[in-house]
Amino acid sequence: MLFSEHVFGTVIKGIFLNVNHRHTQNKLNGLFFRKMDAIHSFAREGEVNNLIKCIDGGVSVNLKDSEGRTPLHWAVDRGHLNIAEVLVGKNADINAKDNDGQTPLHYAAVCEREAIAEYLVKQNADTDARDNDDQSAHDLCESDWPFLQLPAA
Known about the structure:
By secondary structure, this protein is mostly helical.
């Protein structure tokens, strides 16, 4: 177990077990949320070097924000193919769902990020994944990208 995983485990326990030392709990909670904010911010803003430092420091590439978005969701949303490649290379869950059930591929379709969508499909993203409204990425895409077409039954 990495030190940071231990710290995050302690933070999670502190949140749910109501740590008796309020000062300690506040410090740990602050550390957790700063780390969470950092990795999402680096992915969102395309800061590849800082993103890699964050990951190498033990922050999970699959950490979710309050809306259930992973750094990969943010990279796709903002059109950062290079960040998406780094995250996938570091074992990001390519089919992670946010609170609305949308995967990074859904984001690529909605945001018209064709190059990223094609990359995700080549990395085995689930083209038939459905969100909470039973919509696939293909359903949400305004363009007719052939790589999003489902095979004929």
